[in-house]
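User: Sequence for SLH domain-containing protein below. Tokens please.
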Amino acid sequence: MKRRLGTGAALCILLGSTLTSPAAFAATSVSHHLAARVHQPTTTSASHRLAAGKIAGAKAKTDPAVKPKLSLDDARRIVETTFAIPSTFTLQNESYNSDPSGAATYTLYYVSSDPATPQASINAQVDANTGRIISYARNYPGSNRFVFPVPTTADQAQQTAIQWVQKLYPDQYGSLKLQPLTPQPGPLQGPIQYTFTFTRMVNGIPAPFDGVSVTIDQNGRLVSVNDNWTDLPFPDPGKAIGQADANRLYNQALQIHLAYNQVWKGGGASAQTELVYVQDTEGRPVWWTGGFTNQQVAAPVLNALTGQVVDATGQAYTPAPYQVPKPIDPNGPVKPLPWNKVNWTQDHAQSYAQSVLSIPSGAKLQTVYQYQGAGSDTTWSFSWLLPDGSQVNASVDATYGFLQSYSNSNLVIAMAKSAALIASGQASSAGATAAPAPASKPAPPTQQQILDAATAFVRKVFAGDTGAVAVLPQPVYPGKTNTGLTTGFQVQVFANGIPDMELTGYVQVDANTGQVANFWFSTNNLGESLPNPRLAVAADQAKQTWMQAQPLQLVYLKTEPTPVTQPGGTSTAPQVILAWAPMYPAGSDDVFNAVTGQFESTGVPAPYAGPIQDLNGVAAAPQIQLLVQRELIPVDSGGYVHPTQAMTNAAFVKLLVDALGQQYRYDPLLAQSAALASALSRVPAGSPAYNEIAVAYELGWIPADVTFAPDEPVTRTFAAQILARALNFAPLLAHPEALNLPAADVASIPDDAYAACALAYALGLFPLQDNQFNPGGPVTLADAAVAVVQAAVVYGEEGGGSFPGPRPLNG
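Assistant: Structure tokens for SLH domain-containing protein:
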């Protein structure tokens, strides 16, 4: 598979900005399913809406060319009556919006005038012709912390959601299907909310682009509603081709090939490069709207009426058979894999960069910087000021000896200006200004000259590997912001003749000068042994298994408008098509292992959905069930959690750090510092709990002079001390006289642990056992569940400080 970077992505790289790339723009089809998306108001001209900041109660002006059936006052009455808007809310902004398709809406924005809730607000959108509520959202300041027990259960919230849908959309309700509630994995931070998705069904077939989503908070209050409902015609399913014909046509359209790809299995396991089968995307049209937005469908997609493969605009195309890209020099040298380490010095790395980049002798070296992350390669970064005033930046991987990145500031800025001129219509699509160039200026480079420049640069950078490196032109996305020339090229390295997706880069050429403006190369698996391609199952067998794992389903899809490619151009309107396509869960990133011949999960396994078998009579059952739902504790294949089993130090610390949402505070440099070397000496680097244990030390939850024993049972005393520091009560640990612990065995508690044990009791973390604290006793899973859930409650009450506990190691 060739991972192509479009011109939009290239511009992001050029400017160092966070602009949305074409891939990210289209990827919303997976990650923004109906249950999670927020309806966006229709985009209109400025004359159609009130400017932000108008005084409260200002009247919106309507476009005389688009006369809505309802007035703004009608919309206000509908919203205020339907949702019983409190009298303490004042209408601050109101607007009328319309678009060329005929959709007309009113948007109303209310703010609270109650001093007790100054940040409360309500936003509602109403169809200006029918009065239908398109969207509603209300925030509730002051109720944004985690609480337990939850006042409203999922079942209660579901009934509330159904009642709202029946009230707001009585005509739609009969055509809606309630989807299973999506789990809410993650830490015990913030309030619990339940988002329910009601998908539209037409002729018994799902139309995932339409439906209703309702969010209910933990207090049973309506947080948001979003309704999407198209009036477009739906094709007759009686005219669709059959499943057998669809499978045959899909098999022909499905183009897969071998590739090396690094796979993360989750659960703390390290990444490993696998031999996988991936889909070829080269035979597809490339548009920014390349995906069916908000529709969980995988390509290719068959029009169920014609049997043709279609893109997201509904246009038919024929997928081209996959062809392995050719290297720069098919007979050139090939570096043996894994690459050998060279461990260059600064002088060697600098000399290499100057040679590869042809840095002139008059250039002035401005900065030199060395970086070496934990367990990573050594990188030398250089910056030169050239005689022409431009600045060149370059970084070299000194461990393996190759150029990581390069940029020329003058060329990058010039390219950005050129793109802006083209977008404004002040420059032609050929990369030059519209006016004839002076005779003294050379003509802009041709497409072949641009390709030659990119190839020559890559040939020089990979002089010892030209037989295994390809330069692949990136597609030019339709639109008025490009030059019409392909100036971006993917650099792809092959291993055993197969694309290695972890050895890939990008080179950009300035369309005006024909010079390379910037370059980067990413490596993630150097030094790693790769699976032998001879172990892979045959492609035909892989396709058969692929289709069995992702069977085709009949589904209605809404097409995207075709992009406007030039000023004054037109775009085709969306339509509904009936399609045969494989459906997959939002966020699914499973890979097809070519050696095993099966799909495998790349993330945390799906949460256990069945009944837990060993919670009968367990007082901590509600806490355990919550932690299972949040994917914080595992359930074995038989449905058992083993609540009476003693937890180890490692298991307890991992649970606490994850539950409080602090696992992302891991600092690999600090973890491998001399300050923690002794403390973590007994913790295997590959342990699933390694990062969390390091975080506990980094945040000061465990003193740095304590050597961690990961496999020993955690005692109530040790757990109490960690909890006290995690909850910001460390100052109290020095004042045991201020605390009282009414336990019969208080004399057996070490003096330096008394305050922590007393706090654990007072906060409800560790209740007494038969009137004893039992300081050296074990902490069972049930005990830990109660302690951790209650700790999350206390953490929320204390404000959930972003820097919990002392930080003695790094301030």
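The chain has a mean pLDDT of 83.
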